UniProtKB/TrEMBL annotation:
Pfam families: Complex1_49kDa
The name this protein goes by in its record: NADH-quinone oxidoreductase subunit D
Sequence ranges assigned to domain NADH-quinone oxidoreductase subunit D in this UniProt record: 136-309, 311-385
Entry's family note: Belongs to the complex I 49 kDa subunit family.
Gene3D superfamilies: Cytochrome-c3 Hydrogenase, chain B
Subcellular location: Cell membrane
Organism: Streptomyces tubbatahanensis
KW Cell membrane (keyword) present: yes
Membrane protein topology class: Peripheral membrane protein
General function of this protein: NDH-1 shuttles electrons from NADH, via FMN and iron-sulfur (Fe-S) centers, to quinones in the respiratory chain. The immediate electron acceptor for the enzyme in this species is believed to be a menaquinone. Couples the redox reaction to proton translocation (for every two electrons transferred, four hydrogen ions are translocated across the cytoplasmic membrane), and thus conserves the redox energy in a proton gradient.
Chain's gene name: nuoD
SUPFAM superfamilies according to UniProt: HydB/Nqo4-like
Annotated transmembrane regions: none
Amino acid sequence: MSLMTQTETTVGIGGAAESTDMVLNIGPQHPSTHGVLRLRLVLDGERIERAEPVVGYMHRGAEKLFEARDYRQIIVLANRHDWLSAFSNELGVVLAVERMLGMEVPERAVWTRTLLAELNRVLNHLMFLGSYPLELGGITPVFHAFREREELQNVMEEVSGGRMHYMFNRVGGLKDDLPAGWRDRARHAVAAVRSRMGTFDDLVLGNEIFRGRTRGIGVLSPQLVHAYGVSGPLARASGVDFDLRRDEPYLAYGALADTLRVVTRQAGDCLARFEVLLDQVHNSLDLADACLDRLAELPPGPVNQRLPKVLKAPEGATYAWTENPLGLNGYYLVSKGEKTPYRLKLRSASFNNIQALTELLPGTLVADMVAILGSFFFVVGDIDK
């Protein structure tokens, strides 16, 4: 029995034999990307066929630098990877070190940390609530967002001395006690921001152009959320109901269960992600008020522990994780009993979140790519660490 071989020959079609695919690099300096992220797109006309996020343009080697800094100094490095969530970044590191030391933190420090973490969450979300409409052509919301941010920045600056990198956490508590009269000023700032948050409902969510650009666009399925380790507002907008503050409480969140509301949506599109962020701001303001109430009831006392001149963590390893504004941040600390970490590995929310773009962008239009990218709420420093 002989085997038949079939040969296919294409003749006479000229230039049509060439592929119509085009490779387009978006970034790393393009204004439609958040800083130095590069997207390598393969296009068929206006439709994306393949997408590859190329990271690393901003790599600072923070994890390696941790190994050459003592436990007081590493806070300044951790502070900076997600520059919109500086307080929360500090917090994860000191929680890991305190867990290694078996250290109890004074109650007033625990409640103050919770308060400042929620104010930092609002500051983070306001930036995206203002900048996302800007990327879709809506200029006005960003001015409102910065006005509300200023209210909260003022109280954060008063308590810590910093506007962006607070450096207020310490192993064992906080740098200083709250200034006299600060709680009242913080309560006034929270109330002022809450009273004007309706602007985003009217100006953004009520805008038919914004809804047209975001509804049904960039739908992220729960399966993709789990496959890529997507977390935070992105995951909850796809119906994945997980929030560390409720499901594995740390700080004072266990005592705030009645106030804490985990915001979810089922649609998983750009609009749902924006709505989750907006609802979370309302809840964080409520949590801040609850913390202020509790701090008013607590008797005077210390906000930190006395530490030895040279702080050494015992030999071993531990893992601490926090519900950062952009998602789950993990801190894997390994100690050899020295004054510097042997290893400190960061699991940053933005790094995992951005990987899902590989699956999400193919099949969409280039015009929708900007809407999808903007709704992923990432910070490049949090990707490249």
